[in-house]
Amino acid sequence: MKSDFSRFLKNNRKVIENFNSKHKVVLVDRGRFNNAIYGIYLAKILNTKFNLDCVILSDKHDNSDIIKFYKSFGFQKFIKVFNYKDVFFKNIIISFLSFFKSIKLFIFSFLKGFEWMINNLKFKNILIGDLIYDTYIRTGHKFLNPSFDLKLFNIFYKTIFRIYKINRILNAKKVKCIIVGTYTYAYNDALSIRIGIKKKIRVIEAAANILYDYNSNVIKNGNDFCLIEKKIGKIKKIAKESTINKFLKERALGKKNLKHTRNIDIKIQNFGEKFTRKKLLTKLKLKNKKIDKIVLFASHKFSESPHAKGKLIFRDYFDQFKKTLEYIEKKNQKSVLWLFKPHPSSWEFNESNIVAKEIKRIRKPNIRICPKKLNSHQLSKFCDLVITSRGTIGLEFASQGKPVLITGNAAYSKRNITLEPKNKKKYFEILNNLNYIEPLSSKKTLLAKKILYYLENFKLDMNNSDVALTLEEELKAKGNFFKYLNYKLLKKSFFQDTYFKQLEVKINSIF
Question: The domain 240-458 belongs to what CATH superfamily?
Fold first, then answer.
């Protein structure tokens, strides 16, 4: 890695110019090389187009590899946002202000509770409770039993400190644009987005195949929802139903490269066997039981930013799962089979056994874990309803004419194709009246198909980068990122990249 990195630094060309301009472009470093490439592309375009000097915000020290990486492109100005080693020595006033403000907000949140904190906690008129909570449960499975502990206070403190510091930086610089690498969690990127929007500064993010232009609606509802809202006229006329049906069949078989759903999450094992409702009941040893309804509860990855796409009516994904399970156990509707399907990528956060453990604790024949080899397409054939917070599986079921119950904002929300209770009381009222839930009309089913077809084929409207590593390449590279990058650069330089050229066109249309 070190020799490959040294070779990269030696061969790389400085392309960022210093104009001593009054106006700046701020690039928020995420600390990841591949992510940085996309940010550098944006910075280079804005640097050249508007003669803007570039400032990088980072938590990394000056001698770190990521800072050396930026310097090799010609970046000269770096501002450190947060590092505990520097907090008390270089930022004494902000440190004390952050500490006392954190105590006040922490106690207030404790008295109000987590759900109030997530949906209402603000600092400097910026919503921060959702970011703090999502950061808190990201590690250690804190969603199982969240508490107002030292870990949470530490996140409070760092969040408040970052806001003070970023605010001060943006006030001192005349910033024309902020470049970020993500919109999740209580770190520099997401906080810079929200501060930038409040200050009416343009905030953009480039990543594989995409360019995000952030605004308050995106933060409230998520990029996917805003995209569908913007393109709904085009979506309604997108293709013939026969074309869409053919695509959806091939998608279910895992034969398509998808732009919305990760291919790894499309499970196709055992698809050759036509798995029926009867076979399912036989497999679960329920064929002699009177089962009127089969309801599928599709879990999310509990640890992964539950509030990134907007509000939920429950505290988080796990809270919905746990409270739904408690309701089912108490209600004991013996004629309803409840299938619980863990997220296919739950292993990424060591969550593989959490759902199964809770189900096994109950030990009721009509509350079961979904057989592993069944994918969502198969399940939509014989399940009568799917419950999800905001997952794509809801759109898959709606495409089969099956009713969908969601508890948070989804890409396909507010299109009259889902049941969308406004609070927990309404949610459980729906569960109390399962027999009254009707299948979707053919018109609604077709709209669901069109939305799914659009997302999987047209959501990403830019080419893959010729230089930046794909997700698969990153996983394969592991500690040899620069070995792979150097090899790619032998074929094409950074600024010959097809993606970079498309990005220039996009930026010209925005500014």
Answer: Glycogen Phosphorylase B; (3.40.50.2000)
